TrEMBL record:
Protein name: Mitochondrial inner membrane protein oxa1-like protein
Membrane-spanning segments: 170-188, 208-232
Keyword Transmembrane: yes
Membrane topology: Multi-pass membrane protein
Taxonomic classification: Eukaryota, Haptista, Haptophyta, Prymnesiophyceae, Prymnesiales
A GO cellular-component term linked to this record: mitochondrial inner membrane
Listed GO MF terms: membrane insertase activity
Length: 247
């Protein structure tokens, strides 16, 4: 009976909170979460955590692929910077000889990429694949805790956050979310290869993201508890993966 009510709630309230681009991925994710919940009989908070962690771990091969690509890029970076400077200097001369020098440097750069099996886009393939997925997950969770009341999310929590459609009355979940995000950022870039030092721009970005982690607590404290269960479940596997890389 509860499953039928939950299914009717999904149909009656199709996920559209993310707009047209995210509506279909949101429908798939909502169906996945609902299916896991109804099949396993797990409470909603555990369903969200288990599904999120499983999806996160399933993306590990993609993250390993990106990490290896970044490592190969780091090996050739000194030579890459040198050739890039030569290309820029040759073009800046504005003469035939300068353009010839720039073209020679460009061809050497292509050969360097080919020799080390490096493609610049490979270093961001992880982000390109994951960002749309996690945005879809976020919009789905916001939709489910705000619209799909018939699913039982209002009684699917645990401990002090029994109602996943309400905010945490003690603000423990926002603090946990900020802390796990801060820890994840502190351990380094998600795709950073082990033993590869961050450059100045990456260090600045990490400092900025640490600030974002701190600001998350007061700026998202009013979010529903179900959203924080999702966020914390997303952060923790990434933190564990980074710790294992450092060993």
């Amino acid at each position: 009976m509860d499953a039928a009510v939950g299914a009717s709630a999904v149909v009656a309230n199709p996920p559209t909170a993310g707009g047209f681009i995210f509506s279909k991925p949101m429908a798939v994710i909502e169906a996945l979460l609902t299916g896991v919940h109804e099949t396993t009989g797990l409470p909603w908070w555990m369903t969200i955590a288990l599904t999120t962690a499983t999806v996160r771990l399933s993306l590990l091969p993609l993250q390993v692929y990106q990490s290896k690509a970044i490592a190969r890029m780091a090996v050739i970076k000194p030579h890459l910077d040198q050739l890039s400077a030569q290309m820029k200097a040759g073009s800046a001369k504005g003469t035939d000889k300068g353009y010839e020098e720039a073209e020679k440097a460009r061809l050497e750069l292509q050969a360097l990429f080919a020799h080390h099996n490096v493609k610049p886009w490979m270093s961001i393939v992880g982000a390109l694949g994951q960002i749309p997925l996690w945005l879809s997950f976020f919009f789905t969770m916001r939709h489910m805790v705000r619209v799909d009341g018939g699913l039982g999310l209002d009684t699917g929590g645990a401990l002090w956050f029994q109602d996943l459609t309400a905010r945490d009355p003690y603000f423990v979940l926002p603090v946990m979310c900020g802390a796990t995000f801060f820890g994840m950022v502190s351990l380094g870039d998600p795709g950073q290869a082990p033993g590869v030092a961050l450059d100045a721009r990456q260090e600045q970005m990490r400092t900025f993201m640490k600030g974002v982690a701190l600001l998350m607590v007061p700026t998202t404290a009013w979010f529903e508890s179900g959203v924080f269960v999702y966020w914390i479940s997303t952060n923790m596997p990434r933190t564990k993966q980074k710790k294992s890389k450092r060993r």
